Amino acid sequence: MIRHLLSGADLDAGTATLVLDTAAEMATVAGREVKKLPALRGRTVVNLFYEDSTRTRISFEAAAKRLSADVINFSAKGSSVAKGESLKDTALTLQAMGADAVVVRHPASGAPHRLAEWVDGSVVNAGDGTHEHPTQALLDAYTMRSRLGRLDGLHVAIVGDVLHSRVARSNVLLLSTLGAKVTLVGPPTLIPVDIAAALAPGTDVCYDLDAVLPDVDVVMMLRVQRERMGDSYFPSAREYARRYGLDGPRMRRLPGHALVMHPGPMNRGMEITPEVADSPRSTIVEQVANGVSVRMAVLYLLLGGNNR
Amino acid sequence: MTTYLITGVSVVGGEPTDLLIRDGVVAEAGRGLAADGATVVDATGLVALPGLVDLHTHLREPGREDAETVESGSRAAALGGYTAVCAMANTSPVADTAGVVEQVWRLGREAGLVDVQPIGAVTVGLAGERLAELGAMADSAAGVRIFSDDGHCVSDPRLMRRALEYVKAFDGVIAQHAEEPRLTEGAQMHEGEVSTRLGLTGWPAVAEEAIIARDVLLAEHVGSRLHVCHVSTAGSVEVLRQAKTRGVRVTAEVTPHHLLLTDAKAESYDPVFKVNPPLRTAADIAALREALAEGVIDVIATDHAPHAVEDKECEWAYARPGMLGLETALSIALDVFGPRWDLIAERMSRTPARIAGLAGHGLDPAPGVPANLTLVDPAARRVIEPAELASRSRNTPYARMTLPGRIVATFLRGEPTVLDGKAVK
Predict the structure, then answer these.
(1) Which CATH superfamily is B51-356 part of?
(2) Best of A114, A118, A130, A232 to disrupt the B interface by mutation (most B CBs within 10 Å)?
(3) Is the pLDDT of residue A81 over 70?
């Protein structure tokens, strides 16, 4: 097993499949009356969050607690970080406290890589800037596999602000590793340059959402921040929704089995309409539940599984 | 003044000869020289170059003496074979008045290790809004001739036009940091495959090329001299080539790091590789090397940019851009071009001295010429250890690399500043 999980590229097909299989076992715990395993008893997991992200933090917290780890939540607000402490000094502090794993969310791309140089414990990237969010990709893959029975050969469209999306980058890497084909869809201003060369050679880019919908097994909608309008990435929220939003009529152009996914939080009415978000095709709530199982698997394998 | 007899030295790659240095000048040159009481420097196997001249050095004083001082930067320069450096204006306070440029100039004289020629800011506070008192800086004791807002682009076209025109009165030159600011908001590294993978905001090549294209047209229009700092892209080379063919009075520099390192270095997220303009691609490097050899790019300039540890030991996006260069520049030139001594002398000494108007520098060692020269051991190889550098900062991108060439001695007006590879003070 790998020591850190910083990028979707850290996982080869075998390791990724092991994580997904382990997550399936972990999911059975959630169905029990006592939702707890003793696997990480006596181990310390630090949630180091430099950005507000309640859903990701509580997902990791629940995962660690279900594995009986001691959890320390270290939020940048109201801590020494707010007083200007450097990432390195924070790392040394966590090191001195004996953190076995540090789960880090940070607005700067690459911050988890820097952290991994300064601590002995495992580092889990819980989202860094506009770079990656590998556990989100794992839970997305887990959700697809649960619903559709496989990943190999699936065609997944990822739609929206790919340029600023850490979810998209991790998903392209992981899905390609697991044999799925990815098509990125969005306005040209929000598709980063040389994306196929940068991430996975088979990745396609399409600027026309309607053209790809009939041909996909999964459509993953990305959150689009309204602030991007001010930077001229697109003219208006209305035009964005008209060209790239997923509404009822568009949803009905999907094959019957196709899923609609969204990493949340959603902008209802912008990239997705309530009709779609609340439809039976939507896996959005399921993704949240699966997130805990997948993060349990990641922590278990990084911290405990390899010692047995 | 001590008299020095340098024996068996190859002057700019020529046949071995002796050089007698007396009273600050090269008194005699030829084989079998002798001089009573002279200190003999056995330079067998060494190459004598005219003392190197850097058009682009950040000495950080006043303001960030924790990162570098005029004295420590001068020592680093001498150890790198330099006898003159042009000190950039982005200090704190900014070198935008006669008072600040004279202070830097005086500190350089006191250190006495290289000639420190201050560069003046183009605009007050580098704010890009109104002209600094360029004439006052030109008339000051520092005798400023190069003006630059380096670190910032003079992006306002009207202001750039006026600056280019105004400095004609005292044969000044505007050294432009070519970066269209609206195209580089939040930019962290070269825009391309690697920036896409790393999720770092891209700094597109066109942001540099667009400004250079505009500026050569402005310089042509008003008949002024333009110097382009740290050219980093193949597209910029093409713009410069066309402008020079038309006869525009434009000169350009390239840094050692843009001749050697690519944007792939950012994969480590180690901000020691963060620099502005950013490291580019292998194709850009190839174009820059060719342009330098041809003369489309005139000069290698270091953009020596010392930064304190805390400004580099952090997240990439929060780190300051810039890398050390003075103590490694000649080694990089040797690594890239091999022992093409005439090319190295031209690009690292003669031409930069001419652009900066530094009389007494950039002249090959010959009888009657001021003894500003450096002795290089081309056979030596050395491992770069950041802790061993004379700079106050440690942000070299070449840490633990093995590089060719070593500076054995440097003379400033006949007095050694470096002997046996060590600074004399």
Answers:
(1) Metal-dependent hydrolases (3.20.20.140)
(2) A114
(3) no
